[in-house]
Structure formats: structure tokens, C-alpha cells
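Input/output pair, single chain:
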Amino acid sequence: MDATSSRARVLAVVGPAVDRERLLDVLSPLSVSVTSSVGAAGQRAEDEQADCVVLATDRLADVEAVHGALSVPLVVVVPSDGDLSAAAARDAGAADVVPVVDSNLFERLPERVESVVAWRRRGAAAASKITDDLKEQAIDEAPVGITIADCSLPDRPLVYVNEAFETMTGYSADAALGRNCRYLQGPNTDPERVAELRRAIEAEESASVELLNYRANGETFWNRVDVAPLSGPDGEVTHYVGFQTDITERVRAEAAAERYAERVDEERARLQTLVEHIEGLLEDVTSALVRAESRQELEATVCDRVTAAGSFDCAWVGHCDLSPAVIVPNERAGADANTNFLDGLEIDRSDPADPTARAAETRTVQSAAVGDGSVSAEAFVPFDSVIAVPLVHSGTLYGVLTVYTDVAELDDQVRVVFGTLGRAVGAAIDAFESRRSLLSDERLELELEVRDETQPLVRLAAAGDCELSYRGSAQHDDGTVSLFVSTDPATEFEEADTDLDGLRSVDVLPRGDDAELYELTFADGSLVHLVADAGGRLVDLEVDRLGCRFTVVVPDRVAGRALLDDFKTVAANAELRSVTNRSEPPEARREFVASVNDDLTDRQQSALQLAYLGGYFEWPHAVTGDELAETMGVSRATFHQHLHAAERKLISRFFDGEPY
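Output:
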């Protein structure tokens, strides 16, 4: 309650499930009477003119019974080991639900009681104070979840939330209003960060903290909370505006990076343990892993140490990176007379008879007796047995170590040792690949061909009897992607030609020459989306009635493998045609473009790209501002407003390196 109000009169209904003494101690700042009878709660509350009833229970039936007999708000206190959920209690009529936990969620029970009482008395009046001007002021501050809390009411309850807040948290406006935003906290919310936020509010200052919050369905999410005071005409702080941003993906990415570093450390520690405790082959090879300085050296050393152990005569490592159709020897070891059969060896990964192919497919150690000397259909193997070991780490298959011996039969212990070796080598390769990706300016350029006549791009080219050529692309805030293409020969598509699954719209763009330029807008899940999802950059695209040829730059081989796998999932006959190493400067074009795109709004980016592709920047103009405005569906003045804002940001980023 505020400074002019008397303490709330509370009837506490305390059952055996809650520590009676602790509850009454927490409620001591209020005027409290006590009963243990659920059935008598309604009459007692009326006789004593209670402002609120606090019911301590873990039974839903108690909540329903007491609420049905009351004309005042009901606050339910739930024991930490009880089965009653907060959602169920609220559905049964509770105005607020407070868990008995060792945190401020329970210690601030008096404020929460006074809050529901004040909301019952003055909530409607408080809500009516939210004028359109105040809403507009708050909404103009940020394009994210927005809340407004009233500082004149006890515990500063929310009196306004926007739709973004409802979507992000899962709480409707009815469920959110009248309560302090604290209800988003939960058992794993950091109390120190909460205290930091509270101190700033009490000092009437702005603050920004990152909190683990809970949605209405109990799902956790990371929330960056920015709060700022709003003052009335007299300069006194009357409200607090809060900006809520879901940063879950960023925090999870950071946590994943930390976990990855921990896994690498753990893997290296495990390798050290193997060196100390396992004799023979495994000890010898794992010690070499620690000293290797490159992936090539690592794989060569593994082959050398395996063949030097005495029992194994030939070993080779074949990569499974970006060449899924066949596995070929990359590094090998053994006497020349024993390795000649490896020259020109190619193992079909789809061959179920070959242990190397089976190891790649199943990601488990495979062994076989050579028998008549033919394991691979295309090579004579001069040994009695073969064992194939997948080199795997964190779900990624980097290659297969294939080892040959004249031992007639390989026992389970050998397979166990080699399985451990394969995981160790896979972890080491993963570390090399990750380090190379972080330290190198090299990127991979992939040429991918999709010969799938059902793809919307292919169907569009077939319908227009033309070829489509890449002119640019843009991602939009709603998750769609626009692809800008020209046609050869110039083509005018019929409406029936563009009614294709996955293709949201096909719009002709105004140009001053005879070329036909189209904007193709794709819904989520298209091949163009997959390129962006894999961290790639589309640099060229050609489409005809037979298929598509994508040229994509990706950061590393891991991203390339993921993109190829994704293409194969959604399209038939997707193949990798070529891989080229490309060097990019430290300030890569992709980073520059990404930073500019972060500064531009969706409409500003559209205006800039349409003007560029349409020839607006040529002199004389190949297209007018009126034509471009009509294409965007806006007025001429609005189009130029978006275009000039985009130009300012682009030029500022070019000269200053900072957003305008």
C-alpha cells in the first residue's frame, strides 16, 4: 500500500502442509488473523472485513472451495514440495501464487498481498491513467516487448503490456496486468541480478540486466531487461517503462561455446588418462595426438603408429568431408608392397559389403575377414582381416581409419580399443578444424547442383521457358527471403505460372531498360533459406528447366557438410560439384554486409535494393521514385524517407564503421 494507506487486513488459512510459524513471520508487517478451517474461511473473511485471504495449501480443492466463498482477493501459498502448480491455482481463482522458497519470491509475500488488494481497489483507475500519449512514448523507445509499471501502486504492478511481451512470455494482458513483473522469475533466476535491477528502480535510475525468466508454460528463456523511469509534468517519477528482449539464442550459443571448450579440455584430459593407463597401441597413438600440430600430421601419425605396433600391417585414413559418395585414402602407412593396392582405391559409401562404408554409415567400429582377398569390389586386399573405425566427435563424422592385419580374427577387445582411439582422433580433428576456422581468413566456395524439377525455381523457369540468373537477395523480418533474378530471354509470367508451393510471390520490378527483373519471395524452408541457416552467403545462382546451380561461400567444412546434408533432405539429386578455397580479408564483405543489414529496417533495405536493381542510381534515372514507391505499396514521400534513411546509414557505416 502507499504511504497514506493502512495495512491490509489479512485472513491466513494455514493447513498442515506449510510451516505455520514461518508464514506468520513473513506476514507480520500486515494485520493478520489466522484460521486452520478451509470451510470457515469465507465467513471469517466477511465477519472480520478482511481485505485479502492468504491460503497455504497444496490441494487444488482447497483453492476452489475458498475462492468460491470469497468476495475479496485470494493469494495462494504453495509449499516447495507440493504438487499444486501455479497455473492450476490461478485457473481456480487465485489472484497470485507464491511458492515457499528461499528467495525474495516468498520473503516479499506482504508486498504481493498488498498489491492484489490495491489492484482490486484501484486497478481500474490506475489502468485508466494510461493515455495514448504515454503508450506512444513507450512504444517509440524500442521495437521489443514493452511494459509499463505504475509507481504509485504498491509493488509497482504492470498497467500496460504490448503484444510483443505477450508473445514472448506467453502471458496475456489479463494475466500480466496488476502484478509486478517479478512473476517471470523462477527457481533458477539469479537473485543478484534481480537485486541489481531493484536497486536501480528504487534509486529512480535506468538499468539493464540479463535474467533467466520463465514463460507462462514453464519454459525458460533469457531476457534482457532494460528499464527506465518516466516522469510526470512535475518531474516526479510516475511510471517505469521496461523493454524486454529475448536473447535466448545468443546466450545458448555462448553456453554452447563454453561447453565445447570444456568438452575439448575433458577430451584431452581423457586422452592423457589413456596415455597413463592403457598400454600398447592406444598409449602410443594417443600420445601422438597431443603433439600433432595439424590435421594432416595427426592422421599421418595415427597411421604410422598403428602400423608400427607390430600386429597391423597397413592403415589409411579416408575423409568423409564434403565428398559423401566415395571414401578414398588421404593418409596411409605401411610397407610399400603392402600399400600398393590403395592406389586409386575408391570405396562406395553405399556398399553394405564393405566395412569402411559400413563404419561411415553406422558410425560404429566394423571388422571383417577378407576371406578370398576381396573386401572392396575394385581392389585385391593382401591381408586376412580388416577393421574400420569411424572418426567421430559430437555427432560429426570426419573420416574412417581402416586397418589391415594378417590376424585371422579380431576380438572384442581390439574393437573396444580402436573405438576409443577413433573417438580420440575425432575429438582432435574437431579441435584442429575449429581452430583453423577461427584463425584463418579462408572460406570455402561450394558449387551445388540440384537437379530436381519439383523445386519452385525450376518449375518457374520451365513455365517461362527461360533461364533465371542471380541479381541479389534480401532477408526480411518476417522470415521470408527475396531473391532478385533476371530472365533470359525476357519473360512475362502468367499468374498460373507463379502459383507454386513455397513461393509466396513473384513481382516484376521496374527498370529503365528492356531486361526483365523479378523479385521472388520464398517462405521459410526454401533452398535459399538453407544457405543462410548454414551461415553461408549466396554469390551466384543459375536456374533452367532441369535444375539449379548454387555458388555459395561457407565459413568452413563443417558448415559445408551441414548445407549439403540439408539440401539432400529437401531436394532430390543434390550434389556437390566443386569445392574451392577462397581467402577473404579480415574485415570480410559478409561481416560488413551483415553489420549494415543489422542497422537497416526491413523497409529501408527493400527501398535501397529496389532502387539499386531498378537503375534508380543511374543518370538519367532508369526508373522513377513513383514507380518504386508503387512497387513497395507506399507513397512517394514514404519511399524517399526509407531510401534516404538507408543511404545515410550505409554511408555512415562506410566512412565511420558505426551505425548512423
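The radius of gyration is 34 Å. Confidence is low (pLDDT under 50) at residues 1-5, 270-279.
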